[in-house]
Amino acid sequence: xxxxxxxxxxxxxxxxxxxxxxxxxxxxxSGEKSRKRxxxxxxxxxxxxxxxxxxxxxxxxxxxxxYAIFFICIAALAVGIAKPRLLLPWANVPTRKGVxxxxxxxxxxxxxxxxxxxxxxxxxxxxxxxxxxxGGADQVMTLKYRAAAELKGQNNIGLDRVRKIEVKEAAxxxxxxLVEFNIDDVMLPDFFRLKAESDMTKVYKAVYxxxxxxxxxxxxxxxxxxxxxxxxxTDPEPxxxxxxxxxGAAKIDWGASVYELEAEVVPKAWKTGFKREGF
Length: 279
Fold this sequence. Notes:
Elements: H1 2-21, H2 23-26, H3 35-56, H4 62-82, H5 84-87, H6 96-119, H7 131-134, H8 139-148, E1 162-169, E2 175-182, H9 189-208, E3 214-223, E4 237-245, H10 246-250, H11 258-269, E5 271-275
Parallel strand pairs: 2-3
Antiparallel strand pairs: 1-2, 3-4, 4-5
Helix pairs in contact: 1-3, 3-4, 4-6, 8-9, 9-11
């Protein structure tokens, strides 16, 4: 299916060029044989193929595909409001109202799908505790559950978010917690840092607000570096490791807003143990 979509995408680009050179060849069925109409028809086909390639691309999960298609739909809606003919090339009299009527229903459907996909993300079964048993679970299992609940499901390239969660007794009492997870592919180095800070902050907050005697938490983000350039599967490798001890955690107001914690507070309190160059 991926190959078919790729060839159709290339064909639509070729037909855009043909339509700009000779619209009559590109639009044999149309009463309006113009360059503008040819660009609109085959441009629409091109973006439709791009949307389908997102759906069928094998290294993304369903939620990420829905997000991508939603943003394509919103972009198309914005273009259509400005230039209705570009988005409704088949209509006799394209209008902004027609664009809204055509694109808003799928946008609303995709919003519902995104909400459902996010809400239905499962907690890793290795660390899941049924609601009825959560109150009676021991502290070790509860700490693992709390960390795993912040890293549900898969990342946006189809890897399980949680790699490993360990809780061990610390010297002198309390617990040391180790969390390893697969980070999303967010394309740009600065975005990787922001995404890592967001995910790690949520884990630290979940563990240190448990009420248990936690002495230290170490979190490592993994990513399959260079996976796009390789045909064979690429194993994830560590790209960032941070740690936050109980002394540092005690100085943090965990009741602050999520944005403030992620952007200003927690990243300044933790210690960076490892950072891969370029991330």
